[in-house]
Amino acid sequence: MANTYSVQATQLTPNTTVLVKGTLTYSRLAKLVEGEELARVDAKRAANGMNPIGKPHTSVNLANAEVVFKNPNSPTLEEQFVQERRFTSDKHPEFGISYGMENKSSRLPIVGVQQPDGTASQVVLEGDLAAGIEATLVLRVYKPKGYANCGLSLDMVILHEAPRYYNAGVNVSELADRGIIFTTPPVQAAAPAAAAAPAAALPVGTDPHTGLPAAVPAAAAVPATLPVMAPAPVAQPVPAAMAPVAAAPVAAAPVAQTAPQFETPEQELARYRAAEAARAQAAAASGGNSAFGDSPWVDPQAPAPAQQGIAFSG
User: Fold this and answer.
1) Counting beta carbons within 10 angstroms of the beta carbon of residue 110, is it exposed (0 to 12), middle (13 to 18) or buried (19 or more)?
2) pLDDT of residue 82
């Protein structure tokens, strides 16, 4: 079906500018679509009956898109050209009149944030922007060498609020609708966590890698904690004049071990007789007064007095 545009690409003037304001529904501005991802995008577009892009590019879509006319009473051809190429999505009629483009360039567009006072500052995106951010696209007309038609380049994106970033867990179908298919579900990286408290110490003799009791080597294991011992006293040097002189060790005389001696009756009698002879001699020397008494010692083996012819009467 032939288009009914009133302004054609051959009528545009290079290096003129067109501004389009709306709400982001999708953007790929933080990095290029290229390599294997570009191949998947082009394959998806071809399957949907669309022309492949074929070059590294960035991409953006706006909902409720409106051209910001420099002079609303006298729109330029370039402004009319963009105004006529807005569209209504059959799949997302809630977006109102939309505008989208794939910027075929190896350079990323400049991104700025406009403050309430009208000033703007450039920012470097940390990732793809979230949907719902109010933004203005700054488009520039350029003429490719060797081509009659002019094209549009996305030179800048002005955000009218602080950047918010796309959550990889939401709106993946929106990416698929625009030809970006993830081979595996995207995972959002978590922010660095605060330093964790030190882990509880493992029991003595536990393998830190497995948490199981560690093998004890053949040699005696050294206990994890040794008993605290008082330091040994340190001997202080003593002056030579005060040092005691150690006596030479004297060998103890051996003690003779003798067996107990037992007297025979003859030896006992001989000892008694010798003692009696000594007492008799002492008595004679003292005039008959013996130190051992007046009764003389009687030999137990001497004959009885009767046998000696001595008789006792009354």
Assistant:
1) middle
2) 98
